[in-house]
Amino acid sequence: MEQDITDDLNEVMNEINEISISDKLDTEEPKEDFGICEECGNKNTGKNWCLLCNSQRFQHNFGNWTSGNKDIDEIIQDFQSNCTTNLSFVEWIPYSQFEDIKYIDEGGFGKVYSAIWKEGFIEKWNVQQKLWEKSIGCQVALKSLNGSQNITTEFLNEFKNYSKFKHVLTVPCFGITQDPETKNYMFVMYFMEGGNLRKFLKSNFSKLSWLDKLSNLFWISGGLDHLHDKINLIHRDFHIGNILSHNQEVCLITDLGLSKPADKNGISKDSLQKVFGVIPYIAPEILSGDGNYSNASDIYGFAMIMFEIFTGIPPFYNIPHDRDLALKICNGYRPEIPSHIAIPQLLVDIMKICWDAKPERRPTIKELGVDFLNYTNNVKNEIKESEIYKQIEECNKLNLINPVDNNSSTSYEIHPLAIYTSRSFNFKNLPKPKNLNEDKNADELMTRLLKNLEIP
């Protein structure tokens, strides 16, 4: 299974490399011909996959397993009944199926482990032998949620979101299991060797080219575009710890526990204080209570991810993440780019418009995806007359004079009160969000963006 997913990612990378700039981000999924099912004679709905035959096989097996929870069973059965590919369903997986379980990390709402799944993920049905072919002994990640033994709404919400967000630009979820000791339920997910993007940057920042950075931003924007546009969800906790690294060029979105439909903001005037996340990545209108979670609030988090990819350091790493920082953010305070790091002005301008205090000024993720596709292609194909290529060449010269290595930009000491795991907050009486030097900066920024807009 690991090879299958890697192959899928490589196929997508090849498709991206072949995309014409004019194609931009097509809103429709391409229709592929997967051949004819050997059993029923109907068209396959995926590679080596027939919805009609395989859904019936799953349905015939419904009586042979249970998670112990009716709601979870129904979710699993629903997705198995509508499985169009081998990545479009989830399973109930007994905990005894895992061995060599090792603790990896802890987030705001649970712990993450690595494990070997003895039986492995279903790849396809072997027609001749009449059995499932599986990826025996594959490595997976087990993500537990604190207190989920009682099946919280948040757990079921994340499970549903993962189950329907089956897309190559997000970390695949294979199913769920239950820890027999804590009774917490756990997601069984594809193991990302690079870990979260912050850890990857800390170890590899000096090795990343501008093409690598642009490629990573394109992948992140593609995943968020699928979330916003295809399934109408807002992430609501979009920070770099929820981005997992596959390699130098590819990273995928994870942690959809707080995601909710865009038409159900989940926050009202009498509960504005219920804010979750990592303070530097939370949009000012959410901190202040002046606005609800929206696609634009995810874009603010994307701006901070851009900052960390460009500089190699977390935003506001050297100060406490408390009410004082929330107050400063609402008053227009943003992280400063280190003086020894040269970043193309085009990218700085995009980052700044994404962290604008006014949500309506921030671009959509689809617009950003088109930009990063254009920039990636221009750099990859060495289009020397393009503005992004010229600016990167100039920055590379400056960065040679002031080299960035693991002893400078990515060697930092995080303040003990700078917390980068998601928490809940109850801030009151914060000011209405504003930008520093409001009108002057906004006008200058928009002028530069329009001037440097690269239209294919």
Could you walk me through the main structural features you see in this protein, from its secondary elements to its overall organization?
By secondary structure, the chain is an alpha+beta fold. The chain folds into 2 domains: 2-6 and 22-190, Phosphorylase Kinase, domain 1; 197-452, Transferase(Phosphotransferase) domain 1 (Transferase(Phosphotransferase), domain 1), CATH 1.10.510. The chain contains 13 helices and 14 strands. The protein has helices at 2-18, 51-60, 70-81, 153-164, 197-204, 210-230, 284-288, 295-311, 323-330, 345-354, 365-380, 387-401, 438-452; strands at 91-92, 98-106, 111-117, 122-126, 131-134, 138-144, 173-178, 185-190, 233-234, 243-245, 251-253, 260-261, 275-277, 423-425. The strands form 5 sheets. The chain has a 6-stranded mixed beta sheet with strand order 1-7-8-6-3-2, covered by helices on one side. Strands 4-5 form a two-stranded antiparallel sheet. Helix 6 (210-230) runs antiparallel to helix 8 (295-311), helix 6 packs antiparallel against helix 11 and helix 10 (345-354) packs across helix 13 (438-452). The radius of gyration is 23 Å and the shape is globular. The protein starts with a helix and ends with a helix. Residues 15-28 and 260-273 have low confidence and may be disordered. This is Protein kinase domain-containing protein.
CATH topology of the largest domain: Transferase(Phosphotransferase), domain 1
Count of all domains: 2
Q: Compute the separation of the termini in Å.
A: 38 Å
Residues in helix, %: 25-40%
Q: Count of helices?
A: 13
> What form results from the Cα inertia axes?
globular
Number of strand elements: 14
CATH superfamily of the largest domain: Transferase(Phosphotransferase) domain 1
Which class of the largest domain in CATH terms?
Mainly Alpha
Enumerate the spans where pLDDT stays under 50 for 5 or more consecutive residues: 15-28, 260-273
Query: Mind telling me which CATH architecture of the largest domain this is?
Result: Orthogonal Bundle
Helices and strands, in order, run as HHHEEEEEEHEEHHEEEEEHHHHHHEH
